[in-house]
Amino acid sequence: MRMVDVIEKKRDGHALSAEEIEFFVQGYSKGDIPDYQASALAMTIFFQDMNDEERGELTRQMVLSGQEIDLSEIDGIKVDKHSTGGVGDTTTLVLAPLVASVGVPVAKMSGRGLGHTGGTLDKLESFEGFNIELDQQSFIDCVNRDKVAVIGQSGDLTPADKKLYALRDVTATVNSIPLIASSIMSKKIASGAERIVLDVKVGKGAFMKDIESASELAKAMVSIGQHIGRTTEAVISDMNQPLGYAIGNALEVKEAIDTLTGNGPEDLTELVLELGSRMVVLGEKASTIEEAREMLIEAIESKKALETFKTFIKNQGGNPSQVDNPTTLPTAQYQIDVPAESSGYITELIANELGVASMHLGAGRATKDDVIDLAVGIVLHKKIGDQVEAGESIATIHANQQDVEAVKEKVLNAVKINDERIEYPLIHKVIT
Ligand code: URA
Ligand code: CA
């Protein structure tokens, strides 16, 4: 087989065979196919698309290019959740102990990653002593005993995707549905998920800006799951503004604790119940979404979810008393309010700009060697649709530096205040 023929076939709009996709993915992963041919193929896929079979095969081959995590020693159905990425997204911190507390095993491999705030691992390190490096056996034992453990990614998962993603990044081929969908799904499948709940974000702070493209991405991933035999559901949720109020690592941990005690922000609580009840049904711990939702609400009210969170923190070397005393979590030296410049209704809270503002305070990483400050970030006091008076605080900046004028300006730039009230629904659509 010759790579030039594979490129030509796709260029002319024909579907590639399973053998051709295998030839490309394995050849590129091993270094037998050069970057220039891989980028030509990525560009033809960008323009010619792929059908469901091709997308499924592409995903399967990316999984096969590396290690696959074996979670078979863990009892029960392993259901994982994945978000396509937003600002101040505290969902995993709440979901993991919550669904674990009703018996769904959560064996999560998480990343640190780059971005506005740290990843789930960074956030968890807000607890004194928390250890993300459990050996394989302790990881499995923790999940079998207490249903939840979260560790750092180890092993060489989907090397073909890593290489192709880096190439797409510099060849203007990131924004292609078959390429994004196979990239995300291959990582989930390689990390051992048997069933998957996706949170596809849509809006100004998300990768997908409109419902149509978000639906298309969601359908593509659900269909790949079907093709590979891993049942997948997708919830399309709003990211026109940050989720919850907190943006920052320890700040989001505090928000997660509030949510686990039933005192969390309305939107975060609702999203967690929506995603969580789907996970509980897929994990076969309830037969209907309504029943699952009741179980989750009960777990919050009875403090069972909070107890599971404490056990999880303790199992991984963390100090569980910090869950009861969140004031002992990393706290910034300065709290500076940002007053509204006019009166009216909040109509915009541009998530990306608030994320960038948090990053300026030190909450996130620009390069992988940056050290993040767990204490800093931004806590909003208003969300879109809320009324505000001029001079009233719309947000508090938590900083370890005294001069936050530049950050203040960024926050003000992210906020629009208007006479007419608007609102966005939280859940736009569910695709199963
Ligand atoms: N996230 C991924 O993991 N892959 C993509 O291709 C795009 C976003
Ligand atoms: Ca948040």
Automatic annotation (TrEMBL):
InterPro entries: Glycosyl_Trfase_fam3 (IPR000312), Glycosyl_Trfase_fam3_N_dom (IPR017459), Glycosyl_Trfase_fam3_N_dom_sf (IPR036320), Nuc_phospho_transferase (IPR035902), PYNP-like_C_sf (IPR036566), PYNP_C (IPR013102), Pyrmidine_PPas_bac/euk (IPR018090), Pyrmidine_PPase_CS (IPR017872)
Entry similarity comment: Belongs to the thymidine/pyrimidine-nucleoside phosphorylase family.
Keyword Metal-binding attributed: yes
Protein's job: Catalyzes phosphorolysis of the pyrimidine nucleosides uridine, thymidine and 2'-deoxyuridine with the formation of the corresponding pyrimidine base and ribose-1-phosphate.
Occurrences of domain Pyrimidine nucleoside phosphorylase C-terminal (ranges): 345-418
Organism superkingdom: Bacteria
Cellular component GO terms, alphabetical: cytosol
GO molecular function per UniProt: 1,4-alpha-oligoglucan phosphorylase activity; metal ion binding; thymidine phosphorylase activity
UniProt GO BP: pyrimidine nucleobase metabolic process; pyrimidine nucleoside metabolic process
Subunit structure: Homodimer.
Reaction(s) catalysed by this chain's protein: 2'-deoxyuridine + phosphate = 2-deoxy-alpha-D-ribose 1-phosphate + uracil; thymidine + phosphate = 2-deoxy-alpha-D-ribose 1-phosphate + thymine; uridine + phosphate = alpha-D-ribose 1-phosphate + uracil
Source organism phylogeny: Bacteria, Bacillati, Bacillota, Bacilli, Bacillales
Protein's UniProt name: Pyrimidine-nucleoside phosphorylase
First-level EC class: transferase
Requisite cofactors: K(+)
Keyword line: Glycosyltransferase, Metal-binding, Potassium, Transferase
Organism: Abyssicoccus albus
The keyword Glycosyltransferase appears for this protein: yes
